[in-house]
Design a protein that fits this description.
single chain, Growth Hormone, Chain: A, 2 domains, 16 helices, 85% helix, disordered N terminus
């Protein structure tokens, strides 16, 4: 019976794209990533009121990333018998509870508890996102739908940190998280109204994820993904000290440059959909090549405000296409176990965040921030070579 429902659900999605549901997925991403970014802009007042150091308060970010990684590996098997609509709505409920708990937290342990709930929601939602999207629209619209969903990341990048900082100064950091909880509740209402029933598919056991990873095509792709995102996060984590010490600009200019990066990333989401319609291999290969070249250019020739701003923005444009391109690759290369593939994708990204930031920190402390960009460029060029020579790109026949 479940198989019949799955087939029926897929046939309906193929006939009538559920764009409202796609938009609700993008809103979910915006709420989750926005909440993830908020502590970065509110760290000082949070630490001061809770009576802890900024380093200790910063563990709110670490806790979220760590739990997101673990959740991405287990969520599909734990929820394998539950309608995906209910699971996704449950993650949005966790987002609401997380923001409420952080807003009310009288001490660091309860604040970290709230951030753990966010990590569960973040890792779980991302793991199911690509598989959900491919059931909401016909195959030919998957890149476009993924770009709409991924635009939530860019929107969060543009708005969450600066608005969080601004509102925090006006009404206090606790009220910022209350506002985030209110926005998450609105997201829940939109998702409740637009997401159709999505009966579970595939085996979705923990062993299935390892079986998928053992596929040669998938294993090599995950290594390439790890390289691309490690190179990116080594760059992005240390962009501020680079701008301060090499470009020699102050906080206002840095905010403007990062805003340009965020806007360019937003545009890149849609550029990715456009390029994927023409060539998936070109998109997967070209973007890390562009980013790696920019890493070398910034490290060797950085120091001019206009040029550096342009290169950082171009990096954002190129990076904006990357999540869309790889998510599309997963839906094409692993159509039978997309949730497991996306779980591996999310785990690889979270591992890359930790690896890129940690390795970059060692390089900064030992030889300076310029060498971080050199290393980032080298890793991205290595990723380019691997994608070009080792990653298999599925050929998809056009639909009528």
């Amino acid at each position: 019976m479940d198989d019949e429902l799955s087939v029926e659900s897929r046939s309906v999605s193929q006939a009538r794209p559920a764009w409202g549901a796609v938009v609700s997925m993008g809103l979910g991403v915006f709420g989750l990533v926005g909440a993830e970014f908020l502590p970065a802009s509110l760290l000082t007042p949070m630490a001061m009121e809770l009576g802890v150091t900024e380093g200790m308060a910063g563990q709110a970010v670490t806790a979220t990333a760590a739990i997101a990684l673990v959740t991405s590996l287990f969520v599909s098997s734990v929820t394998r018998r539950i309608d995906r609509r209910l699971v996704l709505l449950g993650f949005t409920v966790l987002l609401i509870l997380s923001n409420l708990l952080v807003a009310a937290a009288p001490n660091l342990p309860l604040l970290l508890t709230g951030r753990i709930l966010l990590g569960m929601a973040l890792g779980g939602f991302w793991t199911m996102s690509a598989a959900t999207i491919m059931r909401l629209v016909p195959d030919r619209h998957v890149p476009k739908a993924l770009s709409i969903m991924m635009s939530g990341v860019s929107a969060a990048t543009i708005f969450a940190a600066p608005m969080g900082s601004y509102l925090g100064d006006l009404v206090g950091w606790r009220n910022v998280f209350l506002t985030a909880a209110g926005l998450a509740f609105l997201v829940f209402l939109v998702q409740f109204a637009t997401l159709p029933a999505l009966p579970p598919r595939g085996q979705s056991r923990l062993s299935t994820m390892f079986e998928v990873l053992a596929r040669r095509t998938v294993g090599l792709a995950m290594i390439a993904i790890l390289l691309v995102f490690t190179g990116h996060f080594a760059f992005f984590t240390y962009i501020r000290p680079f701008l301060e010490t090499v470009t020699l600009v102050g906080p206002t200019a840095i905010s403007g440059i990062l805003l340009a990066f965020g806007i360019a990333t937003f545009i890149g989401n849609y550029l990715g959909a456009f390029l994927l319609e023409r060539s998936m291999r070109l998109t997967l290969t070209l973007m890390p090549l562009v980013m790696g070249t920019l890493g070398f250019a910034l490290s060797l020739f950085g120091g001019n405000l206009v040029a550096d701003t342009g290169m950082v923005a171009l990096w954002g444009l190129a990076f904006g296409t990357v999540p869309v391109a790889w998510s599309t690759w997963i839906t094409r290369a692993i159509p039978d176990e997309t949730e497991s593939g996306t779980g591996l994708f999310v785990a690889a990204i979270n591992f890359a965040i930790a690896t890129g930031a940690a390795a970059g920190g060692l390089i900064v402390d030992s030889s300076g921030v310029v060498n971080v960009f050199l290393a980032s460029g080298a890793v991205l060029l290595l990723a380019t070579v691997m994608i070009l020579t080792r990653v298999e790109v599925p050929v998809v026949t056009a639909e009528a």
